Amino acid sequence: MKALVVRLSSIGDVVHTLPALAALHRHGWEAGWVVEPPARVLLDDNPLVAEVLAAPPARAFSWRAALATVRRARASRFDAALDFQGLWKSATWARLSGARQVVGWERRARREPGSALLLTRAVPRARGGHVIDKNLALLRGLGIEAVGTREFPLPFAAESVARVDGGLQALGESGLVLLNPGGGWASKLWPPDRFGALAQALRRQALRCLVTYGPGEESLAEQVVAASAGAAQRSFPTTLLDYVELARRARLVIAADTGPLHLACAVGTPVVALFGPTDPARNGPFAASDLVVRRAPACFPCYSRGCLRHAGVMAEITVAEVAEAATRRLGLAARTGTRAL
Predict the structure, then answer these.
(1) CATH class given for the domain over 158-336
(2) pLDDT the model gives residue 298
(3) Confidence (pTM)
(4) Do domains 2-142 and 158-336 have the same CATH topology?
């Protein structure tokens, strides 16, 4: 049996769908995946993905590329297409795949309710809980019960291991605390000067901080370093898979609700998560030992990037709170002798 996973973006959303991929594999399904470019690196060479189908991004949409992907999907003869996003565009990809059944959430559980018209099988709403479990609950449409499992198949890249080990050796550091100030929504991010002050607080505990960043976030990383008074240094450049290996080697990751946070959780690195408008119970850390520092705005939970009601709420989180959480999380890891999972 062959299933097509339709989860187009973002990095965090793809990470949170990986346990569903693992569950499909455990139950004997071969899986393909339709994805847009930013998160594709997590699926290329992934041991559990038989075929990666490229969806052209909205900002650079190409009808020629889209038609080529549809032809490939139809040639693969999928038995089922799973729409994990609940949008018109994701349901359209699922329907155009030619799969014998198109499975997705019922109308009232979809972000764009009208897109339920493109389904052939609607799964009843999964109430509450983490988004990982919501994704796993969609597999009930195929007769698979996997809610509660946490398995994150990721590709292994020997070149990433070599680059990260070489980079850390050049820095002369190990057991670092990673600070990740960047991410997709400005309203979900903690100010860079706070990250710099946090690095100073952690230095007083003999902890060294490395500031990680994605494409276009170099200046943000430099702001953190400048505010740290020498307590933090900017990371060497990393690809997404390099970051995975770097997170594996860290003692702790401190980040907001962004892809790097979710990747750190996926590989079992202890984390302190910083949350504002979005709900940590839905898409925050899932390990019992991980900690969340948060401020909930009046509009909570809010997943609107342009909402003025939660603008500036992240700045209400204090450096002292985050430093104390970091100390507690490192203490938990030391006492148990284990990582987050």
Answers:
(1) alpha beta
(2) 85
(3) 0.94
(4) yes
Residue 293 has φ and ψ, to the nearest 5°, of: -110, 130
pLDDT class for 338, splitting at 50, 70, 90?
low
> Structural domain boundaries of the chain?
2-142, 158-336
d(CA 180, CA 192): 10
Distance CA(76)–CA(292), nearest Å, equals 43
CB neighbours of 286 closer than 8 A, spacing ≥ 6?
Answer: 130, 132, 150, 265
CA 148 to chain centre: 18
Residue whose tokens read 């009930």: 140
Structure tokens at 280: 């940590």
Please provide the size of the chain in residues: 341
CB 14 within 8 A of CB 244: no
For residue 203 the two structure tokens come to 């230095």
Could you write out the DSSP letters of every residue in 178-235? EEE---S-GGGPPPHHHHHHHHHHHHTTT--EEE---TT-HHHHHHHHHHTTTSEEEP
Cα torsion angle, 75, 99, 45, 167, sign: positive
Closest CA to 181 of 258, 106, 237, 240: 258
The CATH number that domain 2-142 falls under is 3.40.50.2000
Give, for 239, the enclosing helix (H) or strand (E): none
- Each residue's pLDDT tens digit, 24-57: 999 999 999 999 998 999 999 999 999 999 999 8
- What residues contact residue 279 under an 8 Å CB cut-off, 6+ apart? 300, 301
Three-state SS annotation for 269-331: CCEEEEECCCCHHHHCCCCCCCEEEECCCCCCCCCCCCCHHHCCHHHHCCHHHHHHHHHHHHH
